[in-house]
Amino acid sequence: MVAEVLFVPGTTVVGVFGLIVSAAGIIYAFVSFDAGTAWWISGIAVILNLLAIVYSFRSGVWNKFSLKTTNQGRAFDGRTEGLQVGMPGKAISDLKPFGKASFGVEEKVYEVKSESGFIEVGKVITIIKIENNQILVK
């Protein structure tokens, strides 16, 4: 659980700043008051800091900062399976240069990029390159 806390952005900076402020207060107590009072102030500061740390871990406040979801990358997820270079299709939206097209018997819809710029809706197109899940057509 402690490792999770160290990776929450900003908590390390705030924690170090809090430690510095607490230490400065204790030093100020020793400079400004007699030794007995300064030790009392130091003891109270240490106890309050420890109570704050224990409370923060027991109350689950750190769970509010932790990441609960994961990023589902889509770099190579099989979107172009079943497509081949040279396969004919039909533009189902204007390609300027990106748009939608359908290919194959199922007429599944794909996002494509036109090699030559603008292609009107309804025109017959051909796949000329498939790379990194990007379909280039003419």
From TrEMBL:
Keyword match Ribosomal protein: no
Under Gene3D superfamilies, the record lists: Nucleic acid-binding proteins
TM helices/strands, residue ranges: 7-31, 37-57
Q: Would you say which domain of life the source belongs to?
A: Bacteria
Q: Which GO terms describe its cellular component?
A: plasma membrane
Keyword terms? Membrane, Transmembrane, Transmembrane helix
- Keyword Secreted assigned to the entry: answer is no
Instruction: Please give the InterPro entries that the UniProt record associates with this protein.
Output: Membrane_assoc_protease, NA-bd_OB-fold
Q: What is the protein name stated in its UniProt record?
A: NfeD-like C-terminal, partner-binding
Organism of this sequence: Algoriphagus halophilus
